[in-house]
Design a protein that fits this description.
This protein has three helices and two strands, in the order H-H-E-E-H. It is of the alpha+beta class and 78 residues long. It has one domain.
């Protein structure tokens, strides 16, 4: 899939989503964010499809403890 096609399918591309690009390499900041009580994680499969709730009507975000239990070995990306 081309980058152009991927961008059109990316529902987050037009949002004012702060991805903290200037902090992505700051390991101390990342570790702090991973354990923050308000942290939420959106799981994407290799094709970029997001995890959704049982009815497929909403995105399914994971809380920190859920992520630890289900995806402890996974590395987050921003």
């Amino acid at each position: 899939m081309s980058a152009d096609q991927r961008s059109r399918r990316n529902v987050f591309a037009g949002l004012a989503l702060d991805r903290c690009s200037e902090r992505r390499l700051d390991q101390a900041w990342l570790e702090t964010q991973l354990v923050h009580a308000g942290a939420r994680f959106l799981v994407l499969d290799p094709d970029g499809k997001a995890l959704v709730d049982a009815g497929a009507s909403a995105l399914r975000f994971l809380a920190g403890r859920e992520r630890e239990g289900l995806l402890a070995a996974a590395h987050p990306s921003l």
